Amino acid sequence: MIKSHFQRILNKFKIAQGPSPAEIVKTGLLFLALLILISRIPAFNEAFERDLMYYMTTADRLLNGWSLYTELPAFRPPAVFWVYALFAKIFGVNPLAIFMMGLVCAWLTLWGCYVAGRHMTGPWGGLLAAATWTIISGDFLLQANQPNTEAFINAGLAGAFALLVGATPDRQQTKRFILIGLLYCLASLFKQISLVVTAIVLAAYIILAPWIADTTQEKGEKNFLEIRIKALKQTIWAVLIIVLGWALVIGYFQWQGHLAAFKESLVDYGRGYAGDLWGNIWDFLSNPLAYTPARGNAFYVPLTWLLIVLAVGYFWRDRDWRLGLWLAYFSGSLIAIALPGRFFPHYFQLWLPPLAIATGYLLGRSWLMKRKLALGLLLVALFPFAGLRIYQYTIPVEQIPFYKYGLGHGPEATESKYIGFWISQHIDQKVIVYQWGEEPGVYFWAKRSIPLGIGIPGLFMGNPPASLVQRDTNLLLKRLKELHPGLIIANKRMLFKDHPIVQWMSENYVKSPSTPDQFESFLFLVPK
Questions:
Q1: What are the pLDDT digits (tens) for 112-140?
Q2: Are 182 and 164 in contact (CB under 8 A)?
Q3: Which of 145, 275, 372, 409 is least buried, going by the fewest C-beta atoms within 10 A?
Q4: Integer CA distances (angstroms), 486 to 209, 426, 451, 490, 517, in order
Q5: Nearest of 84, 57, 65 to residue 451 by alpha carbon
Q6: 205 touches 231 (CB < 8 A)
Q7: What is the pLDDT of residues 440-474, one digit of tens each?
């Protein structure tokens, strides 16, 4: 008796000596979050991609009271501009605000990947999913260390998927589905294409509902139908929240008197930008290697195909509904990538969370079931990513834009940064500076606000209605004549000879004799 008593005390002491699994997981997540933070510091002062500069300079003017979609042409839903404005208000219009946005998005998605993986294969599977996300979340090849719209979308989609994997149709769970709807709604307010993922995943949840509720085919079709009806009722809550969210946004712009401009920017320009949606999807799915980022193929293609094969195999063999939901998430992400028809590298960030979640799930499951071949193949497919990320840390910050964007946008992004520095040092604040041609980073690095709204639909890309292009081109020309900038920084690639604004510049401006010669992508123009 005394011996057994001391044995119990000894066992308690032994347990107290080591951390519990929950503590290990918490420590692991904190370590991964810290690793994400540290891994992004080397690129803190890189020359940013033009989309980010467009969002930040637009947000700067929003804080000064300018109106979105009227005074500030914007070809995205409003959320990205509002969030940029929020972070600019907190941290200022500077690289720190951009860094913090990217970091917060990465951390939120880290949590989403962990929770999804935990629901699918336990805490260790969740931790493996989070670890995979940590490795791939900052990949320079996909520009994933920057807070483009895809970073915000991923936080919403991964969080919603994590909640959905933990749902079951045999309980009401209204609050859960309201939150799912809120996350899907927020994601769509950054880009409407995320609604494709939402629709496919929710449809898959309804289809798989009998297996999610742990029913069997022997219980009859009536039970299958009842369970699916319950799942449908749950998803209706999510859909209602999405509809309500968009109704509030539309109502806000109606109240502001800007609904027509809002519709033109999101609908008319969007149609011209994307073109044939079904054609875009077919082109991508029929020959994905032709559209995936060329330098990333050696890394992402083997891992992606391996995950698909293993997921389909496990789903078919074990009837694991969680893999069915994942396949819906991944398929929806591919379609969302394809819809715009442009295939810029940052679009492919949308497949990173589903890849991380599946990797964590399959690694954990293969380990538990002692499937050594699958485990070995997964590790072999993952190993190059570690080498890739370590190599990317060695790239000097001045060379990162060239590595990311190549010789097209790379020199322009870099030069716009140093032109901004030059302007801040040599040009009086009273002199109005106007940048012509898609490089608003000039304003950002010069610490100046934009003098006019940036961009005209159809001026540089896309094919919106000709009447819209003509109207806005005339409006911009009128404002430039009234403003009469003292210095124009003109992107040489955008000097189309037959364009009315370029013709006006050639008639009224000459090349400045007192500007630096090291900038090859831009012309410095001053009034005649």
A1: 999 999 999 889 999 999 999 999 999 99
A2: no
A3: 372
A4: 65, 13, 12, 13, 19
A5: 57
A6: yes
A7: 999 999 999 999 876 654 455 556 677 777 888 88
